[in-house]
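Internal tracking record. Fields below are filled automatically when a chain is submitted to the structure queue. Please do not edit lines marked as system-generated. If the sequence contains nonstandard residues, flag them in the REMARKS field before resubmitting.
Queue: standard
Priority: normal
Entity type: single polypeptide chain
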Amino acid sequence: MSKLTHDIGAQLQQLKEQALLRQRRIVDGPQGPLLSIDGRQYLAFSSNDYLGLANHPALVAAAHEGLRRFGVGAASSALISGHSSIYETLEVALANFVGMPRALHFSNGYMANLGILPALAGPGDTIFSDRLNHACLIDGARLSRAEFRVYPHNDVGRLAQQLGKSRSGRKLIVTDGVFSMDGDLAPLAELVALCERHDAWLLVDDAHGFGVLGPQGRGSLAHLGLSSPRVLYMGTLGKAAGVAGAFVAGDAVLIEWLLQRARTYVFTTASPPLLASALLATLTLLQTETWRQQHLRQLIAQLQNGLAGLPWTLLDSETAIQALVVGNNQLALDLMARLREAGIWVPAIRPPTVPKGTARLRISLSAAHSTDQVAQLIAAICAAAAAMA
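SYSTEM-GENERATED OUTPUT FOLLOWS
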């Protein structure tokens, strides 16, 4: 055994001893409230398919039509010959949907942020980042080589102090719209106000807000009634939208600059056109069938009421992400195991995904869940709490 494999093997053993070793699970069949995982069917609260659209017949039919019309692969980068007419149509539709001048499609949200941040900021500039931002925002900021300043979670006062002291050429605030592990919202109105006061820009990663919040699911900005030319809005299309991909929308000049300079857009093969066909079907459903968001809100209230009084903390969230913080890594794994024995799948989330000492169950609700299924989850968690007390 080489020294490299020996050392890495020892590090893997350390992760195991700290209850931090991750495992992939084999899922068979489509996404939905009932999942076949490792050969057994579970009632699952683990998916980001917040509206239950991943298997919707309209999306499946649209994907088939896109497959018939465009084939499977794009076979080229968008700037060579891979930008199909269906993606042009999708980008226009996405910009209109979120009320911004122009949009640009990316293959996924991680790639979007890795491309956006280095294209907009560099040496001599400063990026201000919420401490609980997703890894893709952190990695994109580091790649930019701009000064990287972190402010405490949702601490607008501390951010204002940092901005007031900054003499950078460009100042860019980056934040999740809905934080992926806590489910809470960023103080977007206050952040926009800071941008206007300090001549800064705001990049909102609304991966978990797009499709869920705001009128017809138009996102966190629409939820708060916000509109500003200083905002770039990034939404992912593989969560509530039910398909795959991401987009950034904003000022037309900035979007053109990203098209020219975002390396993760310029130097990658364009996404399969059939996905754009399915996403156009998603946008139609979002604008014509709002009952999914309404049902989701009812499930959120049901879960919060049902878990009141537990020895663990259910974080305050008005989104589909409901985090039950238990603290200890092994306790989170043990709780997940008890639920699994009861036929319920809820993932245990541990550091480094969340801060040390805040291991949790991340409960993901979907409009595809029924009230009976949520009641079953509540009963199982309460029973586990009683048994583990």
